[in-house]
Amino acid sequence: MIKDKTAVIIGATGYVGGLLIEPISQRFREVRCVSRHPERIAGYLPGNATARYGDLFDTNSLEECLAGADVTFYLAHSLDEQDGYVELEQQAASNFVAAASRAGITRIVYLGALAQSPPDRTSQHIASRRAVGEILRSSMIAVTELRAPVVIGAGSMPYEAIRALVERLPVMVTPRWVRMPVQPIAADDLVRYLVGASSDESNESHVYEIGGDNVVTYAEMMRIYAKARGLRRLMVPVPVITPRLSSLWLKLVTPAHYRIGRRIVDSASHGSVVSDTRARDDFKFDPMAVEAAVLRALDTEKLALKFLDPPIDQESPAIKTRIGTTFVERRIIPVDATQNDVYKVLRLLGGPNGWFWGDWLWRLRGALDRLFGGPGLRRGDAAPAAGTAVGQALDFWTVIRVVPGERITLRADMKLPGEAWLDLRARKSDDGITVDQTVAFDPHGVFGIVYWFALYPVHVLVFRGMLREIASRASAIGR
């Protein structure tokens, strides 16, 4: 641990910034997480980390964030900003360098882009990333630039675009760019490189090319992902589809914003392969292969259960979204009761007590599940101590997380074309106690998506009714 130093993460609410906060907080005395929207992470930081407002076009805010710090991770970019992002990125980098120089920063760790441009084609996105690196190195501050390819991890935009295509399209018409070579890097390995770069106490600047253990094409990445998910996909190559048409195609079938999708395609039209292997020698570890990286991304996403905590919209009691491949619905209802009273009610759910609303529908679902080889409701005669122990079977659910006095999370054991979760939480808010109910479903292929939308109206009725009844019973306890 670098006990006497302070690190600053510029772009802490971005994908890579979010991955970096925890490991950096374990190495530095203090970590300042800088963003234009610090409220997004303020409640989720380690004890020695703070969320700070900072704008690369606001000199005063930059100087306040950097004052007295030692190492800065520069992760800001304008990938999803308005047109003219190239000029914006360069001006932002110039502003940052000036503020960092005045603050006495000793090292900047910058995440750039790895790409080889063909002679007849240039990429504005790649050129902008290189220009930012040059601006940072123009100062007297030591800079470590890590040029990275596609990052494999839940939340990485290129990875999300690839898996959305594979999940949603049994047959894909593949343009030329999917046959370009790429050397993807696992999110865990990227973090190892970034953390390692922060330990360099020399006065020298470095440019490293980093990547995973093997080189594949984008088409092969799609096949690797499909195999990991147990999906069969047919790819039909076509000779010419322009980047504009490809980005419109992405817009139709992926959750990516149009401008982001267009720049992903623009970057993907270039090779992205490590030609300088110094990083492996200097950082002294072997990164994982694409196959292992995809499996790690899928496993980490499910184990972390972060998709069960989508951001709360204070203006809406219901949130409907999609996180990665997972459909997520969150409903919130205020309750005139204590947090403990709500939790007492949550513990009564299931078994002979039923699910508080439309229990005949639950029994019907259990009968159908047993008919198709599932466990059914598995109800006993005794009242269950529901939700008290991880691993406990509860009808056709299994308890996978318990926060005593607050939260119960269940994973479905029933026969489904995908995976399902039910999360119930008694939460303290500024306005009192609320009951939070989150339902999540990760569909398996196209049939899973059809299943979700076909049963959606029934699920809405059942889960809304359950939530209202939980609130009503909790309120009755305190009367």
Protein traits:
single chain; 479 residues; alpha/beta; Rossmann fold; Alpha-D-Glucose-1,6-Bisphosphate, Chain A, domain 4; 2 domains; seven-stranded parallel β-sheet; seven-stranded antiparallel β-sheet; 20 strands; globular
Note down, in words, how this protein is organized:
The structure is a single chain. With 479 residues, the protein is an alpha/beta fold. The protein folds into two domains: 228 residues, 3-Layer(aba) Sandwich (Rossmann fold); 171 residues, Alpha-D-Glucose-1,6-Bisphosphate, Chain A, domain 4. 38% of the residues lie in helices and 24% in strands. The chain has a seven-stranded parallel beta sheet, sandwiched between helices. It has a seven-stranded antiparallel beta sheet with strand order 14-15-20-19-18-17-16. Strands 7-10 form a two-stranded parallel sheet. A hairpin with a 3-residue loop joins β17 and β18. α3 packs parallel to α4. About 1% of the residues have low confidence.
